[in-house]
Amino acid sequence: MNRKYGSTFWTTRALVAVALLVTAAIRIAVPFAAFVLTNDVQVFHTPDTASFVRPAIGLTSTWSFAVDGTPEILRTPGYPFFLIPAVASGHLELVAIALQVILSVLTAYGVFEIALLVFQRDDAAILSTALYAVEPLSVLYTSLLMSEALFSFCIVLSLYFFLRYLNDFRWSNLLGSAVALSASVYVRPVAYLLPLLLSTILLFWMLVGRDASLKRVMQTFVFFLVCVSLISAWQFRNYKVAGYAKFSAIHDYDMYFYAGASVLAQENRRSLSDQQKLMGLYDWEVYFGQHPEQRTWNRSDVYNYMGEEGLKTVARSPLTYLRASAKGPFTTLLGPGLSSYLVLFRCQASAQSWGEAAYHALSGSAFIEVVKKAPAVVWWGNFLLGGMLLAYLLLSLTALLSPKREWRNNLIGVAILVMVSAYFIVVPLNTGHSRFREPAMPIICVLAGCGMATAIAYCQRLMAALRGKFSK
Fold this sequence. Notes:
By secondary structure, this protein is mostly helical. It is 74% helix and 1% strand. It is built from 23 helices and two strands. The protein has helices spanning 9-38, 49-62, 78-82, 84-89, 92-119, 122-133, 136-142, 148-168, 171-187, 194-208, 214-242, 250-268, 272-279, 284-290, 299-316, 318-325, 328-334, 338-344, 348-360, 366-372, 376-401, 411-426, 441-471, and strands at residues 66-67, 70-71. Strands 1-2 form a two-stranded antiparallel ribbon. Helix 9 (171-187) runs parallel beside helix 11 (214-242), helix 12 packs across helix 13 (272-279) and helix 19 runs antiparallel to helix 20 (366-372). It is globular and about 85 Å long. One of its GO terms (biological process) is lipopolysaccharide biosynthetic process.
């Protein structure tokens, strides 16, 4: 390894330890400050939190994944299972956030190890860890009772084992990656297609590199089959207990309340949030008020109806859907995440009213006037979070586009990092939110760390050249 910050192994590890301590300190300080300022543990909850906690209560009391005796098929068991110690302790928020802080620190260490594997540079790895320590989205979602911290940990663990496999082709690393990746799907089904993506990249790399030996091809298929087997087990469970043959009903739910709602919102000239409220998002009474015949249906039939109805709405107006969803990846990639921070600290009222007014005035001359009236917290918050995000993205591009190509000896590793991060940015087509970028941020930090190390080395060479020129 080259360009070490220090001459010994222990110096490098000491710097990593400092970065991990900073990671923990920031993730403890933010929820502590939120509680002190609001004196309300409900600030750590989101509209989705209850849908995770209720199955966790079922697991704690009866060891069955059910809500009020009904098998749960909307949520997958990953995060509810993680919440069992918090639910059992009677201190849900305290224990859950403490466990998520531990996971976030482990994720930060995973960022360090991945950067070492890909770039073989101690300085890049240390800087990657430092960047992740202060990364706003990971700090935010460590403070909320949401699945993001656990999901990011599973993704980073899977990538770590997968990249190690690319170095030594050991079965243990390959199987470790498959298990961790399958676990991530149980936490958030958005990763459902990742086993196929990684297997395809691996096969393509072997064919291009003319290294498609029987062992390598067999290992790729075993990786894919292990993932499929572990994931299919839950689909079989859903079919057996509820007659629902899919991995999770969240796809049908999103098809109705997000994809279909985005089309209806455009057609009815409403905001997406207003359309979703009218359709009964987060409120079964509103939904059943519009579909009274479904009160007697089992939930699997209700979710199947949602998926079919959402698909019909999209199929009826595909161009409207594409226009509505086109901004999703841009919002996911470039959204600074300020609104979620304002909710955490109970500053949401003024910011949301400003944001709503700006949205409605976006196409008119009133937009400038609305922007002028923005609360100071909106200006400074967007300046800070948006500036940090821009810096991370520019540093990542610096790593990828640098003439020296620090990653040229590990092209496949960088390709995997880029494609997995792009997957999380692009997949939520029907809607966009900074939250969806959170699992990509550890990868972006890995790339940004190399970009920062490259930029620092360039500045050092430039300064040395200038000193040499003026000393003559």
